[in-house]
């Protein structure tokens, strides 16, 4: 194993409390000017001499065997330079080591309408498109699996020949303490069924990639990817090239949201076509094709059962999820675990059972969309708690506030909580929205609803388990006082380049705009695993602090000698190095760098970051641990028209515990953008298929896939709460995903407050509200939602005693009737040390 | 098949300068700008007229360049994002978008800037609702539009000669 690396916790605590010069200010992003003048080069803006254009032929069938492909007529068309089919790229790939189930071009079977089967490179896009029409594919259609329940009831024909049986890709059963005993000790036990519809990222930029092959055997790929490191791995594997001969350059992404986190067919295809033709090859997907790439939110059917005491204290929770995974694995195994991982990090859950299943279906693969696997269970949990609060006669805000997970504690499933600012977040939105004056007191048709959430700040375990850092930074100081920072992170609009500049500027006392940032290039930058799971600020930030502090130490050594002072007395600020006790006595930063360079040679340093080890040591403990958890609370106002069921959201109040704001303007933008995307999922966004018509996507276009325009977007009142976490750089936690999570349940709870019907499904569309209102008028259950959870052949549970029942983070053997570590255990109402602020 | 690439030539005014360009006659203005004139600041999100990402100004009116034939622009005045900054100085809209973080990924930004510029040319003091109406044809997935509205308002105030600064809540949230 690796030696433990220095983490933020090893640094003096003043990093969390110090006054900052740059950190926390509202700054322009370092790439803002390029973006407003149109100079930023996105992948489709890359054009090389003699470039060819590629197009993919995609399957018209949701599920079929390929009996034969005849590309000869296409290959003979004037202007066509190469044609590829599945046999040209036989090696499978996939983002997760456990699901290497994709091929760049389907060799023998297609698994969704849109699955690529052949590719053409030609002198123009028009010629390439014309050539696709000349490729003859013979299919033998198979029965398609249309959704997750269909997959449960139809194990045959199998979509894949691996997984946990039939068309079930993954089955999970985890048990943290005896939940039956917990339910028995409850004053109220409630069960609910909810459904979260799938949705897609819809980045404004269509995926694009350009490959260039040099006769010396070097491949270069420019791609709109969030994860150049994993694309690098996939290209090396499929093309059987040495990674040293592949350079992946992640161009700035025109929006990602998780949709550009997998290695994709089109990236491998253009690389292969460039190798075959010796010419650069570009592909830019059409908007329709972007819908087929998908990897978006898994549709999730969820069942939740919770036992509570009269004061709302949870005694036990049992949560089941069934995910519609689409045609391939993608991140799906992780997504499935995530639907059960974070239920425990907001309110104290002493005993917890999670059963999760992911089904293969004949639709575009689902994967990680903003919040990855957690918005669905958060919706279920927060609506469920709203119903429990009503049954207990408690205010939902009070119920939550009374039972918050304490900071610096372990959860039942062995997640280590650091800073925990949910209490202040709830108080902010309750006070700001006038909650106490409005809840259950507004006129019919107007409503207000509350929900909370939490999200990881990066995953504690990487996709490939190895002892190497998750993020690396190199730093070079120039004689003129400039600094260059190299990092493998990818700028997807979230401001990751600026985070590096702000952090290095803070440590070295220079201006953020004195710093050049080089990112996302596997030849030039040390590995950072990518822009996903809200990991970048924390991980690259800690790596950047380490590199910058090392540079500061070198420079200080020589400045101290010149100034005849101990190095500890030197401060770095305003582009100067000076005596903290006599600021007039000092040097310019550039002069100090020159002294250091004269004495020691080029001033260059490195920094890296590896997350702390997680205390959970059971199978499945790899998903959920994070260096730090962000917290959010949300209050939504709604206007519901009882005549039509139309829901309008005039305003949302959102409070987010970001730990420490690094760039205030960016934090605001991430929070507002998360609220926007949550609102879209709450009210309108859905990946909808014609199940009875070949499982064709209903609406693969920007016009018909509804997303909020300026006319639907609500006003947002944002509160930034800072509860610094010792693991974060200067205490920072994530802010780009977490604030999405509470929005759908807050809207659903507000609809109930407005018109007294429960919509246990998102999106909350007018017809669902209307149907529920009709039922209410007829005296039926005033609800719209799922009514059954299918029987699933769950495996034997993995039993892990919670920390307060004598566990050590490991699973215990299955011994019916007796669980070691549980003997005589009492159900604690609270873990010790509940902090209520 | 008739040759697709028998080129047509047109003259137009592009970003204030006379330009001649030859291109295959079926090409859209979007393609002519990006491929034949090298102005890649104009982006595309659907090429079907659905998202607003490719908007440019033709005779000072916002149009979707993916739905306009290049040939239809002969003799017209076309303005793209590359023509907004003058003399090395950002246009007040560009400056406000950069200042407030109204450009996150930046992909939809050129079209928003041009559409907002067309609005401010007609209405120096637009209300928030007028801004929403003017920008309703442009999709943005990053910002939730809030920083865009605030940047348009800030730029409008500055273009009226006011010494406007962003509100504290805009940059730091509510206390």
By oligomeric state, this entry counts as: heterodimer
Tell me what the CATH architecture of the largest domain in chain B is. Answer: Orthogonal Bundle
Give the overall average pLDDT of chain A.
95
The CATH superfamily of the largest domain in chain B is identified as [2Fe-2S]-binding domain
Number of DSSP strands of chain B? 5
How much is the radius of gyration of chain A in Å? Answer: 27 Å
* Helix content, binned percent of chain B: 25-40%
Radius of gyration of chain B: 17 Å
Task: Describe the structure in your own words.
The complex is a heterodimer of chains A (837) and B (175). With 837 residues, chain A is an alpha+beta fold. Chain A folds into three domains: 51-142 and 204-255 and 260-293, Aldehyde oxidase/xanthine dehydrogenase, a/b hammerhead (Aldehyde Oxidoreductase, domain 3, Alpha-Beta Complex), CATH 3.90.1170.50; 174-199 and 296-461 and 616-686 and 698-784, Aldehyde oxidase/xanthine dehydrogenase, molybdopterin binding domain (Aldehyde Oxidoreductase, domain 4); 469-609, Aldehyde oxidase/xanthine dehydrogenase, molybdopterin binding domain (Aldehyde Oxidoreductase, domain 4, 2-Layer Sandwich). Chain A contains 20 helices and 34 strands. Chain A has a seven-stranded mixed beta sheet with strand order 3-5-1-12-9-10-11, with helices on both faces. In chain A, a hairpin with a 5-residue loop joins strand 19 (471-477) and strand 20 (483-487). In chain A, helix 7 crosses helix 8 (265-277) and helix 16 (536-563) packs across helix 17 (589-600). Chain A is globular. The model of chain A is unreliable at 1-13 and 817-837 (pLDDT under 50). By secondary structure, chain B is α+β, with helices and mostly antiparallel strands. Chain B has two domains: 8-82, Beta-grasp domain (Ubiquitin-like (UB roll), Roll), CATH 3.10.20.30; 92-172, DNA polymerase, domain 1. In chain B, 33% of the residues lie in helices and 14% in strands. Chain B has six helices and five strands. In chain B, strands 2-1-5-3-4 form a five-stranded mixed beta sheet, sandwiched between helices. In chain B, strand 3 (55-58) and strand 4 (61-64) form a beta hairpin. In chain B, helix 2 (92-100) packs across helix 5 (146-159). The longest helix of chain B is centred in the middle third of the chain and has 14 residues, at 109-122. Chain B is elongated, with a radius of gyration of 17 Å. Classes of the chains: A alpha+beta (837), B alpha+beta (175).
């Amino acid at each position: 194993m690796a030696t433990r690396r220095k983490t933020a916790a090893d640094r003096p605590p003043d990093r969390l409390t110090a006054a900052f010069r740059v950190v926390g200010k509202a700054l322009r992003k370092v790439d803002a000017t390029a973006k407003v003048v149109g100079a930023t080069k996105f992948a489709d803006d890359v054009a090389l001499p003699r470039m060819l254009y590629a197009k993919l032929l995609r399957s018209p069938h949701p599920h079929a065997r390929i009996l034969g492909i005849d590309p000869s007529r296409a290959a003979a068309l004037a202007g066509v330079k190469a044609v590829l089919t599945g046999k040209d790229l036989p090696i499978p790939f996939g983002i997760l080591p456990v699901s290497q189930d994709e091929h760049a071009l389907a060799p023998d079977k297609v698994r969704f309408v849109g699955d690529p089967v052949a590719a053409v490179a030609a002198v123009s896009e028009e010629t390439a498109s014309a050539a696709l029409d000349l490729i003859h594919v013979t299919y033998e259609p198979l029965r398609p699996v249309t959704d997750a329940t269909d997959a449960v009831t139809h194990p045959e024909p199998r979509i894949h020949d691996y997984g946990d049986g039939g068309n079930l890709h993954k089955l999970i059963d985890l048990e943290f303490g005896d939940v039956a005993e917990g339910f028995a000790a409850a004053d109220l036990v409630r069960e609910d069924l909810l459904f979260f519809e799938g949705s897609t990222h819809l980045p404004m930029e269509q995926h694009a990639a350009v490959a260039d092959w040099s006769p010396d055997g070097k491949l270069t790929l420019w791609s709109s990817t969030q994860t150049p490191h994993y694309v690098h791995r996939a290209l090396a594997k499929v093309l059987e090239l040495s990674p040293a001969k592949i350079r992946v350059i992640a161009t700035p992404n025109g929006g990602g949201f998780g949709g550009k986190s997998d290695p994709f067919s089109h990236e491998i295809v253009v690389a292969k076509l460039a190798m075959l033709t010796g010419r650069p090859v570009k592909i830019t997907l059409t908007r329709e094709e972007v819908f087929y790439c998908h990897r978006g939110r898994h549709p999730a059917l969820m069942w939740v059962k919770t036992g509570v005491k009269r004061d709302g204290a949870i005694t036990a929770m049992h949560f089941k999820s069934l995910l519609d995974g689409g045609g391939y694995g993608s991140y799906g195994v992780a997504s499935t675990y995530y639907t059960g991982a974070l239920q425990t990090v907001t309110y104290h859950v002493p005993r917890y059972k999670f059963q999760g299943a992911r089904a293969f279906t004949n639709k575009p693969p689902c994967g990680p969309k903003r919040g990855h696997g957690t918005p669905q269970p958060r919706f279920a949990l927060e609506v469920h708690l709203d119903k429990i609060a009503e049954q207990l006669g408690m205010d939902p805000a009070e119920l939550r506030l009374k039972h918050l997970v304490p900071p610096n504690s372990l959860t039942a499933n062995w997640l280590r909580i650091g800073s925990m600012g949910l209490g202040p977040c709830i108080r902010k939105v309750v006070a700001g929205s006038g909650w106490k004056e409005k809840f259950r007191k507004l006129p019919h048709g107007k409503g207000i609803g509350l929900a909370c959430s939490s999200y990881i700040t990066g995953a504690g375990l990487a996709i490939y388990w190895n002892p190497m850092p998750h993020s690396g930074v190199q730093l070079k100081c120039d004689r003129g006082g400039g600094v260059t920072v190299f990092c493998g992170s990818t700028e997807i609009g979230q401001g990751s380049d600026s985070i590096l500049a702000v952090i290095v500027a803070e440590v070295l006392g220079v201006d953020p705009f004195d710093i050049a940032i080089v990112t996302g290039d596997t030849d030039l930058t040390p590995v950072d695993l990518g822009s996903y799971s809200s990991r970048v600020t924390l991980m690259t930030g800690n790596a950047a602090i380490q590199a910058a502090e090392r540079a500061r130490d070198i420079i200080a050594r020589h400045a101290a000698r010149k100034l005849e002072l101990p190095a500890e007395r030197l401060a770095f600020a305003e582009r100067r190095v000076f005596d903290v006790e006599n600021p007039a006595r000092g040097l310019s930063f550039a002069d100090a760098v020159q002294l250091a360079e004269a004495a020691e040679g080029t001033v260059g340093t490195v920094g890296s970051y590896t997350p702390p080890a997680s205390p959970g040591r059971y199978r499945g403990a790899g998903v959920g641990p994070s260096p730090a958890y962000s917290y959010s609370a949300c209050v939504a106002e709604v206007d519901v028209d009882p005549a039509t069921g139309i829901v309008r959201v005039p305003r949302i109040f959102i409070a987010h515990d970001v730990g420490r704001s690094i760039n205030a303007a960016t934090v605001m933008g991430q929070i507002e953008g998360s609220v926007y995307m949550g609102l879209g999922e709450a009210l309108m966004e859905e990946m909808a298929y014609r199940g009875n018509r070949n499982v064709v996507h209903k609406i693969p276009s920007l016009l018909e896939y509804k997303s909020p325009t300026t006319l639907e977007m609500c006003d947002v009142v944002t509160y930034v709460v800072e509860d610094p976490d010792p693991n974060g750089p200067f205490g920072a936690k994530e802010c780009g995903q977490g604030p999405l999570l509470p929005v759908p349940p807050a809207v659903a709870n507000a609809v109930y407050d407005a018109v007294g019907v429960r919509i246990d499904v998102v999106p909350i569309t007018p017809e669902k509200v209307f149907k529920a209102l009709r039922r209410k008028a007829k005296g039926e259950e005033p609800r719209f939602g799922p009514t059954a959870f299918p029987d699933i052949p769950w495996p034997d549970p993995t039993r892990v005693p919670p920390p307060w029942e004598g566990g050590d983070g490991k699973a215990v053997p299955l011994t019916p009737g007796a669980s070691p570590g549980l003997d005589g255990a009492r159900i604690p109402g609270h873990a010790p040390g509940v902090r209520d602020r | 098949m008739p040759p697709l690439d028998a080129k047509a030539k047109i003259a137009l005014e592009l970003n204030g300068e006379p330009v001649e360009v030859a291109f295959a006659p079926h090409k859209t203005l979007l393609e002519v700008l990006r491929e034949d004139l090298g102005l890649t600041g104009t982006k595309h999100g659907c090429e079907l007229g659905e998202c607003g990402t490719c908007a440019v100004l033709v005779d000072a009116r916002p149009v979707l360049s993916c739905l306009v034939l290049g040939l239809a622009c002969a003799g017209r005045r076309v303005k793209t994002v590359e023509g907004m900054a003058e003399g090395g100085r950002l246009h007040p809209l560009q400056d406000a978008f950069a200042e407030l973080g109204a450009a996150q990924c930046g992909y939809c930004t050129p079209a928003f800037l041009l559409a907002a510029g067309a609005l401010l040319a007609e209405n120096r003091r637009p209300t928030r609702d007028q801004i929403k109406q003017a920008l309703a044809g442009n999709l943005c997935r990053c910002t939730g539009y809030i920083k865009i509205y605030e940047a348009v308002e800030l730029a409008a105030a500055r273009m009226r000669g006011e010494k406007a600064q962003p509100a504290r809540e805009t940059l730091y949230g509510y206390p």
